[in-house]
Design brief:
The chain is an all-alpha fold. Helix content is 80%, strand content 0%. It has three helices and no strands. The N and C termini lie far apart (147 Å). Belongs to the FtsL family. Pfam families: FtsL.
């Protein structure tokens, strides 16, 4: 009887060699790895594209910032020029015909 058992075990071993269940899992595992590689590659392409788009937007915003800073500097210079006493005196003389009075034109009034 032990010989029958050994023969059954050997025939079972031959029919299930090499690990019949594991052989069926290999194609699934390889397929899953292939799908994971495809998804990883697509994700890499998508992230690279988004990074490039955001970098282009950053460059555009920095260019706009530089332009606005230049305009701000020009406005500050212009503001400084408008508020100088010489500029005010020139506008008063040209537009309003105002002038600084001579010493002879000044009258001192005492209480």
């Amino acid at each position: 009887m032990s010989m029958d058992r050994i023969e059954r075990w050997a025939s079972t071993l031959r029919t299930e060699w090499p690990f019949k269940l594991r052989l069926r899992a290999w194609p699934i595992a390889i397929g899953l790895l292939f799908i994971a590689c495809i998804i990883s590659g697509l994700a890499t392409v998508a992230v690279t594209h988004m990074t490039r788009v955001q970098y282009a937007q950053l460059q555009q915003l920095e260019q706009e910032k530089n332009q606005l800073q230049t305009e701000w500097g020009q406005l500050l210079l212009e503001e400084g020029a408008w508020s100088t006493p010489a500029r005010i005196e020139q506008i008063a003389t040209e537009r309003l015909d105002m002038r600084i009075p001579d010493v002879h034109d000044v009258e001192v009034i005492r209480p």
